[in-house]
Amino acid sequence: MTTDQQVESPDWEDQLQTPVQFVRGVGPERAKLLEKLDLRVAIDLLYNAPRDVLDLSNVRTPAELEAGVQQSVCGSVVDTESRRTSNGKTISAVLIRSGRAFVRGVWFNQPWVLKKFFQDNVVLFSGKPKMNSGRWEFSNPHTQWLELDDASSADGLPVAVIPRYGLTDGLKMYEIRRAIKAAVEDYVDLVPELLSPECLAAWKLPGIREAIQNLHLPKSMGEYRAGYRRLVFQDLVEFQLAIELRRRVWWSGVPAPKMPCTAKIDSRIRRLFPFEMTAGQNQAIADIVADLNAGRPMHRLLQADVGSGKTAIAMYAILVAIANGHQTALMTPTELLATQHWQTIDKALAHSRVKRRMLTGNLTPAQRQKALEEIRSGDVQLIVGTQALIQKGVQFSNLGLVVIDEQHKFGVGQRAQFSTGTQSPHVLVMTATPIPRSLCLTQFGDLDLTTMSDMPPGRQEVKTYRVYNANTRKRAWKFVRERLQEGRQVYVVCPRVGETEDSDPQLQLSFDEEFPELSDKPAAIQEELIGSAEELFEDLQKNELKGFSVGMVHGRMNAQAKADAMEAFRSGETQALVSTTVIEVGVDVSNASVMVIQQAERFGLSQLHQLRGRIGRGKHQGFCFLFSDASATEVVKRLSAMEKYTDGFKIAEVDFDLRGPGDILGSRQHGALPLRFGHLIKDRQLVEETRQAAIELVKSGQFDGPLLAPLKSAVLDRFAELMDLPRSG
Ligand code: ADP
Ligand code: MG
Q: Which protein residue has the closest C-alpha to ligand 1 atom 10?
C-alpha cells in the first residue's frame, strides 16, 4: 500500500516519504523484505494494518484458571492424539505444557485441526475451560500460535496487547515490529490530519497521530480498538466520499423519459395480482415510481432474498413504462428463467392488450428476424429474454425501461450496452445475492439500492441438514419417500450432467475454480456419492426412489426438452426432479418442499442459498439435505453455515470471510477493493455510518470548503482514476 506522491510536497511530507531503508534500525537488507509487503516508505509503516492482535491481558497460569470463565492460557505443545468414540465421533486433543502443569484442548469431529499443531509450538488457548479428570480442558478453544518472539521481543512494548503483522519469507515478527515502532516514534508527529476538528468531534474519533500510536503501541485493547476504528473510519469515509462525487457526476448526465404513475395506472396494475403486495413490495414500488418520474435514468438495484416476490415488482415497473408509451425489456441469465417469467407474465396479462414477445437464443432464423423487426418498429411493448436481447442486431425503437433479473450473473459491461445516446433507458436490477451497499456501488458504479426484507405471508424457513455418511443418507432418502407419499415433490441437485465432464455448462461458479486446494478429494469417497445427473437419474429409479416418477432437467438438454421437463414437474406428473443448477435461479414450484443436493461441497455458498430458495415456497415446511463426504475444514464450515443460517445476508458474510471480497458477484476480474483498513461486511456498521457522514459533508458543502481541502485531495488521489471522477471536483 503506497501513498500517492505529490510532485511538489512540503517538507513534512518528504520525511514521511523516507524510504524504509533509512528508518531507524532497518537497513537495506530488511528494507528489501519490507518492500515485498508493499512497505516502501516511512508512512507505509505507519499505515500498515496489523493482521491481528494478541490480547495477553487475560492470560492466566493453570493455577489461576476458573471454570466457565472466558480466559486464556499459554503453553507449548507436547502431544497430540485423535481417537474414535463408540458412536463414531472423533475426538482430537492437544496437550500443552504451561509452567509445570498440563492443559488440554479438545475438538470433536474435526480431526484435521491436529495438522496445525507441531511439537513445541507455543500456543494460546482461549475459551471457557472446565476440569476433566484433574486437568483443565478447553473444548474448541480459539487458538493463536505465538511467534517465539511474541512475548520476549516485545522490547519496550506494553506486553498486554501485541499487534501482529503480515510477514514474508525471511522477515521475523520482531523485525517488522521494531521497524514500525521506530517509524511511529520518529514520524508520527508529521502525519497530516485530514479531518477538521468538527469532524473529529462529530464522529467521535481520536486525532490521526494518537490513532496510529494506539494502533501499533497500544496499552490496552480499548486503545487499540479506538485507534483501529479511526483508521477504518477514515478509510471508509474517503471511499464513501468518492462514491458521492461519482453520484454528483451522474446527476448531471443524460436525461431519461419521465413516466408518471397515475392512480388509475396504479390500480389497473394492482388488479392483475391475486395477492396484496407486502409492505416491502410497496416500498420498492414507491422507490421505483419516484425514479421513473425523476427525469434522469433510474439506476436501481433491488436486493431481496429468494422468494420475496421480486417478479411482481418487475411487472409493476414494466407496466408503468408501457402505460407511458415505452418499450420495455426483461432480461434473465438463463432460458429456463426467461421461460418461467414469460409464463408468469403471459398468464397475468392474458386479458390485456400489452404486445409481448420472448426472445431467446434458440429461435429459428426466420422467427428471430420477425421478432427483431417487431422490436425495431416498436410493435412489441415487452420483450422477455436472455442475453440474446443485447446481442448485435437488436434495435429498440423506444426503449424506456430495462429490468435485469438476478444481476449477479450479468457483467457490468453488459448493462452499459443498453444506453443509446440522447436518452438513456431506466434500469432496474434485481438480485437475491445480498451485496453490501458499498460493494455494489463499486461493482456497478452508482446504483441506488432498495432492500426488501419481508417475505410474502406464510413463508417458512427451510430446515437444512448436512448429511455426511451412508447411514444418515439412508435415513434422508426414507424421509424423502415419506414426503413424496404425502404428495410433496423433491428436487435432487447434482453438480454435473454426465459422468465425464466437469460441470454443467450453466454452472457459473465452479467449485474447483473457487477452491482448487480442496478439489482433490480421495477417490474412494467420491465414488459413493453420484455427482452426475444422468447417472443419478438412472440410479434413483432403481434404488432409493423406486416406484416414484422421476424427471430430469439439465443445461445440455435443448430448450424444448427443458421446458417439458419443468412443465411435467410443475404439473406434478413427475414427483422428483433430478437437475443441475439450471434450477438455481427463479424457478418456482410451490409444491416442491424437499431438496437433496449431491456433493454439496462442490457448490458455492451463495449458490446453495439460491438452490435452497427453490423450496419452502408454498404452505409446506421445506427441508434441504446437503450430501457431502468431504471433510476439509472449509467445506465443513461452509455447509455448517448453511445448516445454521437461513438469512442470505449472514450467508454472504460467511462466504465473504472464506473467499474474500473479490468475487461475491462472480466477476473475478474486478480485483480487490481499494480499501486499506475497512472490511465491507465485517465493518458494515461503519460502512453505513460513513455513508451518512459522506452524504452530509457533500450536501452541506463542507467537503468543497477550505477546511476539508486536504481530505478532498486525498480522496481524489485515491479514487479519481478508479471511479472516473473529474479532478475539478
Ligand atoms: P423472487 O423472484 O423474489 O425470488 P418470486 O417473484 O418468484 O420471488 O415470488 C415467489 C412467490 O411468491 C411467487 O409464487 C409469487 O406469486 C408469490 N408472491 C409474490 N408476492 C406475493 C405477495 N405479496 N403475497 C403472496 N404471494 C406473493
Ligand atoms: Mg425471481
A: 307
